[in-house]
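PROTEIN DATA CARD
Card holder: Metallophosphoesterase
Chain length: 56
Origin: Hylemonella gracilis ATCC 19624
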Amino acid sequence: MSHLLGRSKLWLHGHIHFNADYMVGATRVICNPRGYSYAKREDMNKEFRPDLIVEV
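Structure generated from the sequence above:
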């Protein structure tokens, strides 16, 4: 879906297992996955930020 980047200022996504916050051209890309609710605590994303707020 990279062909869609640049058509918006913000892109939020999931389905990776780590945090991401970077720019692709003029688009800010953010991912803040918590992990699966049924996962063992040690398998969850230790860098998950429950306080992350993105102003639009």
